[in-house]
Amino acid sequence: MEITDEMLKSMEVGLAFRDYRFAAVMGPRRVSMEITNEVFKSMKIGLVFQGYNGRISSMDFHSKATNYLVTASDDESIRLYDTQNAVCLKTINSKKYGVELVCFTDNPTLVLYSSKNGWDESLRLLSLNDNRFVRYFKGHLDRVVSISFCSEKENFLSGSLDRTVLLWDQRAEKSQGLLRVQGRPAVSYDDQGMVFAVAYGSHIRMFDARKFEKGPFEIFAVGNEDSEAHVIKFSSDGRRILLTTKAGRVHVIDSFHGNSIASYNVKPVVTNSMLEASFSPDGNHIISGSGDGSVYAWNVRSGKVARWGSTDNEPPLVRWAPGSLMFVTGSSELSCWVPDLSKLGSFSVTK
């Protein structure tokens, strides 16, 4: 692999990140740290990847090869990172089509991304190995605003401003199903791929992925929420749903019964940016961006844990690394947040 200036810059690792990685991989024993409020409060930026010429518009960790992170940016680039080794592995430019949303497939060398050129709303399956388009997915007539890939299968969902949700098999160019909606849709599969959720307006509609054509088996009202849905996600155990809206509300909902577990307010989004939030791996904590550029953390049971301010005026993207004590934020740079071990009294070591 050719060593580029970008790779050298990305390897300038902060002390907190270096110390955390050393503790996490020492010998045959592995550090296990429970995600507590104290751990959250100690979180700090340990590593920053720079070099973007625009804001990061999307990012995704691979569900199994969890050290791999892919980002999309307004500078029309797709970048692949190895967060464990603190290096940017590859940058691919999509100058012709632009890029807005990006996500991994089940194969960490293949990503799915949406266009941002205003004239071609096709989705593209891209091989990161050789910068080759494997397949095009045509069907939407307006901008795609939500994508969810089923990690257990080869299916994915896409939601568009054309007020449709399309269901796809990555092996076929034509969609496998269509749902019409009455607003901007946010879509998500659960981790098992058995159920998916579609949010728009003030409701979440739950579908059985095997017989979606029969319509939703449950419809959950989300309080008095009338703002457009931005992001919807399931917790890793499938028991909770996270929903964010343009008005700056972050909802946590029981996925079986539809009752509200918690609801939080951040600054509303006044730009075309996305308000994103993410569950911790255990589903008991949430991180969220805010319209004023801040990052918030909450304990689902007890409320706000921490807030990290910013001089930015747009919400950062946030994403928790699966199975890890690290989350990332994306704005005009990519930041990796890890616990500051010097601020924690002790942590357990297990085999």
UniProtKB/TrEMBL annotation:
InterPro entries linked: Swd2/WDR82, WD40/YVTN_repeat-like_dom_sf, WD40_PAC1, WD40_repeat_CS, WD40_repeat_dom_sf, WD40_rpt
Principal location listed in the UniProt entry: nucleus
Superkingdom to which the source organism belongs: Eukaryota
Entry's Gene Ontology cellular component terms: Set1C/COMPASS complex
UniProt keyword terms in alphabetical order: Nucleus, Repeat, WD repeat
Homology family: Belongs to the WD repeat SWD2 family.
Protein name: WD repeat-containing protein 82 isoform X2
